[in-house]
Design brief:
Blueprint lengths: L8 H14 L9 H9 L17 H21 L9 H6 L15 H17 L5 E2 L4 E5 L2 E9 L6 H15 L3 E6 L1 H4 L6 E2 L4 H17 L3 H9 L2 E14 L2 E12 L6 H13 L7
Parallel strand pairs: 3-4, 4-6, 5-6
Antiparallel strand pairs: 1-2, 2-3, 6-7
């Protein structure tokens, strides 16, 4: 795998569009990625410089920080793979969706595929030998196959339904499995930025409390259902641009919860340790 250099946002945008071209995936002018590129880059690929909060381009630039950074991570992880053709189908799926995720309340096929690719890249970064296979990604942990069902959840009211769908995928795949649920828009439907001058440890504590509260409000029947279907545990992810002292950086908050499925605690613990080690942009 490639050890990606530290790229600026404009450099990452150039890199990501080069990867689409390398895989012969057309990026139309209306695509969110082309629009993001045009906001953060000049036509020659150089940076357009600082984009102030309140400017017409600010929200697009902020989404570029989230989307471009995630795809940069994915493309870097697959760069050294000798079987590049197997990635073309999912890369083609990235292209859709609006620039702002809150504008896609129904279908969001592009970012759904992006969430699957992110989980795959995390596993690859953690040396878990992932492949795209049912339920969505299958990796190897302690010489066992573990399935990952990936869901982007855009509304807290849909969370129980989507987790049950994911657990059904795991049951059908006949593997012990983990649900990777991206809840970025569910917990932040207005898509605001976090602006803070606090110590990062305080931000982490606030973030964990928010996701823990979300879990504490789950119906107990949900746990019974997903455990019965072979789910080892659930990861919740939120990817949020955080502004500290005027600079925006992408942060990922990760919150893992295990079930008590068939004494599989050691497998969950190993998976959790390795998966967490592979996460980029992680608030630690």
């Amino acid at each position: 795998m490639e050890n990606a250099p530290e790229r600026s946002l404009s450099e990452a945008a150039v890199y990501v569009l080069e990867q689409f071209e390398r895989f012969n995936v057309a990026i139309p002018p209306s695509s969110r990625f082309k629009r993001m590129y045009d906001v953060v880059c000049n036509p020659d690929g150089t940076s357009r410089g600082y984009i102030a909060h309140g400017s017409l381009d600010f929200e697009t630039a902020r989404e570029a920080l989230r989307d471009i950074s995630q795809l940069e991570f994915f493309f870097a992880q697959i760069a050294g793979d000798s079987q590049q053709d197997r990635y073309t189908p999912i890369i083609k799926r990235f292209v859709g969706d609006s620039v702002l995720p809150q504008d896609d309340t129904q279908n969001s096929h592009g970012r759904d595929a992006q969430a699957e690719a992110f989980a795959f890249a995390v596993c690859r970064n953690a040396c878990m030998n992932p492949v795209f296979a049912e339920p969505d990604v299958v990796c190897t942990v302690a010489e066992r196959g573990v399935g990952i069902a990936v869901k982007r959840i855009k509304s807290c009211s849909q969370l129980s339904k989507r987790l049950k769908e994911a657990s059904k995928q795991i049951e059908t795949a006949e593997l012990p499995g983990v649900i990777s649920a991206e809840v970025t828009i569910a917990v932040n439907p207005d898509n605001y930025s976090i602006v803070t001058n606090q110590d990062e440890n305080q931000v982490v504590r606030w973030w964990i409390a928010k996701l823990k509260n979300m879990v504490d409000n789950w119906d107990s029947k949900l746990w019974v259902t997903i455990q019965r279907r072979g789910v080892l545990g659930v990861f919740l992810h939120e990817h949020c641009p955080v502004c500290s002292e005027g600079q925006y950086v992408l942060r990922t908050m990760n919150y893992g919860i295990k079930t008590s499925y068939s004494g599989m605690g050691p497998l969950w613990s190993e998976f959790r340790t390795r998966f967490t080690s592979g996460l980029p942009h992680l608030h630690r």
